[in-house]
Write a structure and sequence with these properties.
Number of strands: 7
Order of helices and strands: HEEHHHHHHEHHHEHEEEH
Largest sheet: 5 strands, antiparallel
Strand content: 5-15%
Structural class: alpha+beta
Shape: flat
Distance between the termini: 29 Å
Oligomer: single chain
Length: about 300
Amino acid sequence: MSFRVIRPLLAAALVSFALAGAPALAAGNTPLAEHNGNEYVLDDFHIFFMRQLGARGLVTFLEQAIVFEEATKLGLTPTAGERTKFIQENMSQEIYDGFKELYSQEVLDRFVDYTIMNRKFHDYLEAKFIEEKNIAVSDDEANRYYLQNLDVFQPAERVWMSIISVETLETAKEVLAKLDAGENFNELASVYNVDPELRARAGYVGRMEKGAGLPAPIEEAAFALERDQHSQVIKGTLFHIIYVHDKRPAEVHPFDEVKGDIKATLRDLQVQRYIDDYLNELYTRELPRFTIKANLFNVGEDETPSG
């Protein structure tokens, strides 16, 4: 399984798994990775991230536990169908199966339930405050937001691009020959760019709109290219070659087309303030009622090893 794939879930999963207290299916010495003859095991991983999370990680977990308890009181326990949908659509079966190799079914089920119930409790609070506070967004409010964000609703023609900038025509021709031979643009950009920041980003510039300030020769070349094409050498203060990853035409989304989405966005922003206030009051009331039994979390930060 790719680390890049599971990375967004690690923090949440560790809070649930490392602090939930249920036994892991695998032993602590279960190998996770090996490099240069060194083996790294599950316990290494747990200790490292327990230290990284620290007391703040415990508080985050306890806040999740409070929401879980409140959601349980409201009968928001997920159905079997909701669990299956979450695993398939949000977590992915591959990630779920990967965690099953390391943790007990009990712990994994609890993590899934915590996550689903957190979302259901948020939806419950949203509906509650929309009704109680009579939250509504008028057409005038939505239109004002539309006019203040025309760049979002009426974007100009735009490209997503990378660039290689070198000091001499000879070097530029050398790069161009490698590109024409099929070498990867961004790999070459990470080597040839004279600017160290561009080298570090492998030449990636990102989204640029027409008329947004690119030097004229570069803008002309960029918007003449099609997707996945590179330019010829462009002479300026330096010698440049650009690559277009993606390209989108100018768009105009009339107010009536996006009014519903704008109203939903503005409504969500309003209701989120009430939800945040409610949760802060809930945490302030309930967190002091926990008894912390693990000595690790009763150690002051100044006394805790920093290594």
